[in-house]
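Quick one, tokens below:
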């Protein structure tokens, strides 16, 4: 079995229990030292073979998979959640083409970790009910489909999480303030560097101040930028928890419960 495991944002206690179990039972581990702190490997058995993908191509990684029997416990450890910018699709296609069993073990994405550090909900009623995950087109610019750039998506005015873009703050701000953007220079923004890791930094700012903030932080990697009005305090309270709002699990105006434990 090849397990694509989300390592979480970096703190050793933010990997899932399932992910930690897969690492503890691994025969082979492939991990990216450039993205995943070494502390995540502490539970890997000394008998396991460990490869650092930072120096490997996709072909090198696939050769590791091909060299072990299908029942070997292989863990491919990805930062955050593997489904976001994890480049797992091409590995999964190889598994399908080669009849190799695989699973995906989800992880805590830096998206959730950054929101936690910022101390904000990303979906505030009446303010933002959509979260857009994107990035600047980069050296792999041809991988950016038209209409999915920060500039294009800024028109929605939703909460935006910008990955992989810390090295180009001026370009990012130009996109956030594009002609069709619903943001303006006063729109709240938050820069989170190394969420959950040693050296964690969080700075709340505005789109107008964002480039200067990012430049003064000097972080070019492991940085997530959150943008949107939901990042400011205030907003409408949720109807779901209003006393006069009934639903299948709660009658209207019940003054507290005796126990919240499952029956
Ligand atoms: C290759 S992507 C992987 C994203 C990952 N799959 C996830 O779910 O967080 C790497 C980018 O994720 C973001 N990132 C990953 N870990 C982070 C952290 N601990 N703090 C802030 N940003 C992080 C940064 O934007 C970084 O450039």
């Amino acid at each position: 079995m090849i397990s694509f495991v989300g390592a979480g944002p970096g703190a050793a206690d933010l990997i899932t229990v399932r992910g930690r179990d897969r690492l503890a039972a691994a025969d082979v581990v492939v991990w990216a030292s450039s993205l995943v702190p070494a502390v995540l490997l502490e539970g890997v058995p000394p008998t396991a073979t460990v490869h650092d993908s930072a120096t490997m191509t996709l072909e090198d990684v696939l050769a590791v998979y091909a060299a072990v029997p299908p029942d070997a416990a292989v863990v491919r450890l990805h930062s955050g959640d593997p489904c976001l910018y994890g480049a797992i699709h091409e590995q999964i296609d190889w598994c399908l083409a080669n009849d190799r069993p695989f699973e995906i073990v989800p992880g805590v994405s830096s998206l959730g970790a950054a929101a936690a550090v910022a101390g904000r909900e990303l979906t505030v009623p009446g303010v933002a009910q959509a979260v857009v995950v994107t990035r600047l087109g980069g050296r792999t610019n041809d991988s950016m489909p038209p209409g999915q750039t920060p500039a294009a998506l800024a028109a929605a005015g939703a909460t935006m999480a910008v990955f992989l873009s810390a090295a180009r703050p001026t370009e990012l701000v130009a996109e956030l303030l594009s002609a069709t953007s619903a943001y303006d220079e006063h729109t709240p923004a938050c820069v989170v560097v190394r969420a959950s890791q040693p050296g964690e930094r969080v700075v709340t700012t505005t789109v107008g101040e964002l480039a200067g903030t990012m430049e003064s932080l000097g972080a070019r990697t492991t940085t997530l930028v959150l943008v949107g009005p939901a990042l400011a305090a205030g907003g409408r309270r949720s109807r779901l928890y209003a006393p006069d709002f009934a639903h299948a699990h709660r009658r209207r105006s019940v003054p507290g419960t005796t126990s919240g434990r499952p029956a």
